[in-house]
Amino acid sequence: MAEATPSTGSIFGLSSLVDNPVFAGGLGIASLGAAAAFARKGALVAVGLARRRLLVKVEIGKQDPAYPWILGWLSQPRENPGFIASRLTRIHDLAITTATSPRGPGAHGPTSTHFALQPGYGRHIVKFGNSYIAVTREKHSTANMNTGEPHEIVQLTTLWAHRHIFEDLLKEAHRLAAEANEGKTIVYSARGMEWSPLGNARRKRPLGSVILDEGVGEAIVADVQDFLATQQWYVDRGIPYRRGYLLFGPPGSGKTSFIQALAGELDFSVAMINLSERGMTDDKLAFLLTKLPQRSILLLEDVDAAFVNRRQRDADGYSGATVTFSGLLNALDGLSAGEERIAFLTTNHIDRLDPALIRPGRVDMMLRIGEATRYQAAQMWDRFYGDVDEDHSARERFLQRMEELGLFGAFPDGTPSHRQTSTAAIQGLFQFHKTDMESAIEQVQGLIPRKFEPEESMVEGSGKTP
Ligand SMILES: Nc1ncnc2c1ncn2[C@@H]1O[C@H](COP(=O)(O)OP(=O)(O)OP(=O)(O)O)[C@@H](O)[C@H]1O
Ligand SMILES: [Mg+2]
Prior knowledge:
single chain, 466 residues, alpha/beta, Rossmann fold, 3 domains, 4-stranded antiparallel β-sheet, 15 strands, binds magnesium ion, ATPase_AAA_core, ATP hydrolysis activity
């Protein structure tokens, strides 16, 4: 009995404590609180688990090609059955992207402006098929070191059971983007260390609108098409799948225009670098060539710029502010140069190039795109006035006048002439007299390059006239 006393005493003590209403109340609240906290934690874990198990997320970064497609898709108006659903799934926060670009392939003419509404930053709900998707667009505080633009992501979340819709959605977004660019040629240029589209995609220029001398354009097209059809041949022989073309000749002969039209014809885009551009260095060139946009023709303009600066790298690796000769060669055939490539190089100064450039794999085909020939002048005439000059009589008078002025490289009596003109100049003349072919014929002497004009008219033209 005596032994039992303390324990009974403690039990008694406890029960008396429990009996104490103040203590019991406190204990009750405390345990309730603990239970609530436990339940909350449990609920959080459960929600977290459920989220992980039931939801599926896709994150797309701004540098991914799919990023603009997704934004484009999101800005599409879509029909939602039912008032509530459409209220819920209509995007209410919009951001605007305005692009102004010159119309057509030339840099002249009126500009066209295009506004695109995109979902703003934040969270939106959209409907795709029978699934609801939470879209979160976020701008980060970090920035892309190459372009200085802040990082951005779009996150799409849907139910795990609906995860297959992402593939359909991306396909749909890509189809929309492709449709918007159909019939257009995208020209990429280097922005910082990255390729970015130069303005909006331009309407494709018909290949037939660039008139090179007889057979020249056809020869290039046939060669490129043959190259594109024989990839397996290169793979089987372990040869890098590349082909290079060098187009050289005087300014305004249609080199750039032809390459852009060719890209359109083949459904390629153009990735353009001007080697005489400020800030284009060996490293930058090599880097850009490793990440050419897919299905694009590389266009290196003014390659002679690399030969003016023959300086090699200094001991400390610095190669100057422009591209050097060795830098160009390394970029063209170094390890850095991607596997698949069609490259077009252009120059006005073939005499400045080094024979080392013209080596298979670097340049496989070299073509002079020269001053306007009789054939080209006739073809251009037909494109401009063909419908009004059905019997070609005016065309013959025009060509006759050109010949008399020695614009095709010789005078009618056979003496050579240096007064050749460019196809760009002929186009300019026809453009000026769009609807009046007779005045185009009258103004033929305007095609004589200024340096060959008679002394007096030079004086007249040099500032005396208002
Ligand atoms: N052969 C041609 N056929 C049709 N248009 C031409 C031709 N050559 C030039 N043009 C017109 O002249 C303008 C200038 O042509 P382009 O820029 O293609 O010349 P280029 O040879 O690249 O000159 P540069 O050597 O100065 O870069 C364009 O508007 C183009 O349409
Ligand atoms: Mg050019």
